[in-house]
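hey m, so remember when u said the tokens were messed up on ur end? i reran from scratch. heres the input so u can diff it against urs
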Amino acid sequence: GAKGVRALVYDPDEPSYAAIDGGLRRLVFERERDLVPVRIVKGDPVNDLAVVHLEKPVRIYVMPIAKTPPAIGDPVSALGHPEQNFWSITRGQVSGLHEGLIQTDAAINKGNSGGPLLNANGEVIGVNTMFVRGAQGISYARPIGLAAKLVDAVKAPVVLDRSTPAKA
């Protein structure tokens, strides 16, 4: 239901703020000129994932994707902006593997959604998605392979069905 989506690309030379100093509101106010319009290319509301296109050229850092899936007990780091605290990293471990979800005890809070879940080598293994309210240490990420399928679906050529009822 968003009316417009914009992105703010990480710039290590620009200040960031903790929630106590204004967090997201202050950062957006001070860097409004740097906001990049975003177009949603394809969304998957069931898995809480989307493929987006930045509408103007910007320099971005592309994080490496893990070639092997995580195992229970592997160390992980969750990157995001929890509760308006920008560019935060929390650490933990993989505490469960479920169908379509990586469970971790790395803190994932409101604002971490969409950030990467990284393995010990700094490779993306998942996309931070949710946490269980009222239960400390239970957070989830969608495996990067699930997100990759969404990206692949966008890249796939469109095949038109030219059959007719008479040819069926």
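this time it looks ok to me. The mean pLDDT is 86. if urs says something different then somethings off w ur setup not the seq
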